[in-house]
């Protein structure tokens, strides 16, 4: 199967070479790798150029956005910039962060999944990060049927059905909810262990603390689901402020009547699905 990879990269000189090396070691190589140099002022561009000389499937796309490392909108704007440079002659499409090391058979296994089951719309492995003892440990705070946004693959039909990726916080949850709305399945594989070189969220701007709650509003969660999800998040992170930040973000968005990322029918489906999953865990 044919696939393309898009890698948004903002000041990734410390990790990018390792990520590109792991991609070029794949048993099934991509047709093209687009690295979007998003306003970097370090050696990111130089690293991309060096790899371009080594491998013709790598292409650099320069993009100028804000210097703030905000979750959601910044990275997807860069992703969409890379998408403009690709055609539709692919079987699946990959959004990959510039700080990941993939196992050598990562995309060969995903190709096998997509080819074997057309109902699979999104697929991926699991993130491992180093702990305080320098050991690689599983770091997956979500359910096992969730694929982290750092290394996500979409079948072409699913990607088109969900209308691409939304430029907002929560895009990597909304894509899976919309995929299920369009009757696609999410596939995860514990054998695909991805080394995530930078712990999640460590580079995020402090202004992002209210964005999670605003994202829950924009995804059509409603007050009840947002409340329960925020309690769960605060408990898992052992940070009481996470609950209050989420609720403040949600209520601010609702008060300002900010636009939703979904229509009414999609919102009803999402709320029904989320309540069903929550109740299932309690039973």
Automatic annotation (TrEMBL):
Residue span, Glycosyltransferase 2-like domain: 5-145
Ranges in a coiled coil: none
Matches recorded under SUPFAM superfamilies: Nucleotide-diphospho-sugar transferases
Cross-referenced CDD domains: CESA_like
Keywords: Transferase
Superkingdom: Bacteria
Keyword Transferase among UniProt keywords: yes
PANTHER family: GLYCOSYLTRANSFERASE (PTHR43685), GLYCOSYLTRANSFERASE 2-LIKE DOMAIN-CONTAINING PROTEIN (PTHR43685:SF2)
GO molecular function: transferase activity
Keyword tRNA-binding: no
Lineage: Bacteria, Pseudomonadati, Bacteroidota, Flavobacteriia, Flavobacteriales
UniProt protein name: Glycosyltransferase family 2 protein
Gene3D superfamilies on file: Spore Coat Polysaccharide Biosynthesis Protein SpsA, Chain A
